[in-house]
Each structure stands twice: as structure tokens, then as C-alpha cells.
Amino acid sequence: MRINFLGIEAFLSIADRGSFKGAATHLNLSQTALSHRLRKLEAELGLRLFARTTRKVLLTPAGAELLPRAGAMLEELGAACENLKAQGRQKRETLSIGCLPTIATSHLPKLLDAFSQRLPDVAVRVYDNSAAEIADLVERGEAEFGITVLSAGRWDLEMQPLAKERYVLLCPQDHPLARRSTVVWSDFENEPLVRVSAQTANRAIIDSALGARGERLKWRYEVQHIATAAGLVADHVALTIAPQLSLNAAFSPGLVALPIRNPSITRTLGIVSRCNVPMSDAAAILLALVKRRFRESRED
């Protein structure tokens, strides 16, 4: 049978207050409307729940049996609704995005500071993962958008280019090559190099651009993150090839970034989001800040 919640609410209110008048006032109803709700519930049950006299309203045996069960049921239902409301508030107040670690280190601090001034009550969860992981998070809806390397292989996502970033040779500032303004690939063919894992977008871009030439380079070490590679460079263990932003991400004043020519390599940074899925207001505000930040960076 369908549960008559309005009738149960009326029943509980009358039982708690011992009068129709007090219950009607509590529920902001007329006594006629309250009586109608109770009569409907009693008709559905086929039992009288109250014995009415001119001076008192008393529970019948059926009413006494129903009272604790009905009270527990409404209390449990109320708790469940409050829990769902809390989840809804948490979802509304938390914005999740993906962001490459190099961009997160170099750009996000100022972006999030500006965002918090606009929406101080919205928390931000940042997945500073690889490009492939960011794309998957966006596709599953776990992140509203991602700031990442754009890839032609993700037809299922909407892509908005932000900027092109060149790859550079990172070397210690006291290395002989550090005195040059640019280098070509043959300049460091015999230098020990460290590269990142083949599972990363950076590795795929470099390997694709170099082709067979890449095999002539002296790849002595392989790591999972650019920050680790930069640490090896800072300690004079090896040199590495990395995006320009990684110099900032490494937080090492002892490194020099040298543009590489013949060929020069770039990657396209941009925004990935789900196709035909509107963003939340908070996501739209942060995205506008991201675009302005990159636009200003190009103008500097």
C-alpha cells in the first residue's frame, strides 16, 4: 500500500501535543484540514487511532501500537533526507578539475587565489595527474574539466587550445652548454640524458618528433615524473628534455632552459571537457580565469 505520510505526520503531531488545536498550529493547518488527514489515515488502516472526549484526546490500542513505529519511520526518513541534502551541498561546494603537474605548479596558485576571492565557499579538488589520467577523469565526470596536453586521439572530449609550449634542454647553470642561447640536438648527443616514462604524453611527443634520431641520444635514466628528472639535472647526474614550464615546477634556481632547434618541439596545452555537458557555474568561472591567465602569459 502507499504510505500516507501526511496522515502519519498529523497522527504524530496530535499524539505529541494531546490536542487537535495544538497539532494544527504546529503544522500550520486548520483543524478541519488536520482532521481530514487523520480521518483519511484511519480509513486506510480500518482502525481508529484516537478516542476523543470533550476534554481529552487519547490513543486507542491501535494508535498506541502505531505511535513508536511511525515515529521511528519518520525519524529515519528525515535522517536519510538530511544526509542526501548534505551530499548535495558537498557536491555543489566542491569543484573538481584535472591539471598537469607542471601547470599546477606554475599557474594554479594565482588562479586558485583569484577563484577563492570570487567564490570563497567553493572548495577545489585538483587531480594533478598525467594527461591520459586527466582525460579519463573528465570522461567519467569525476573532473569537470582538465588543463592538459591536447591529444588528437580523444574524439570523445571537447578540446579548447590555450597555448603552445616549447620543449627545452634543462642543464645546470655551470654546464658548458648553459652559456649558449640555443642548442641543436647534436650538441648533446654524447651527454647522459634522463627521460620520463613511455606512458606519459611528453615522452610520446618527443619520440614522435625525433623518430630514429632519438635512438642516437644517450638515454641513461628513465623516471616517472619531470620533477624527478629535473632533480637529477640539478645534481649534475644527467640532462633532460622537458616542457618550458617544468623549469618553474622544479623549483631549482640552478637550472638553465635552452631552446632546442632543428627540430624544435612543441606541445599544445588546452582544456578538455565532456561534449555537450554544461559546466557548473563554479567551473565556468574558474575556466574563464584559466583562459585569461594563459592569454596574459602570451602577451607578456
TrEMBL record:
InterPro entries: HTH-type_LysR_regulators, LysR_HTH_N, LysR_subst-bd, WH-like_DNA-bd_sf, WH_DNA-bd_sf
A Pfam family: HTH_1
Keyword Transcription regulation: yes
DNA-binding among keywords: yes
UniProt-recorded Gene Ontology molecular function terms: DNA binding; DNA-binding transcription factor activity
Alphabetically ordered keywords of this record: DNA-binding, Transcription, Transcription regulation
CDD domains: PBP2_LTTR_like_4
Gene3D superfamilies in alphabetical order: 3.40.190.290, Winged helix-like DNA-binding domain superfamily/Winged helix DNA-binding domain
HTH lysR-type domain segment(s): 1-60
Recorded GO CC terms: cytosol
PANTHER family, alphabetized: HTH-TYPE TRANSCRIPTIONAL REGULATOR YBHD, NITROGEN ASSIMILATION TRANSCRIPTIONAL ACTIVATOR-RELATED
Family: Belongs to the LysR transcriptional regulatory family.
Protein name, per record: LysR family transcriptional regulator
Organism annotation: Methylocella silvestris
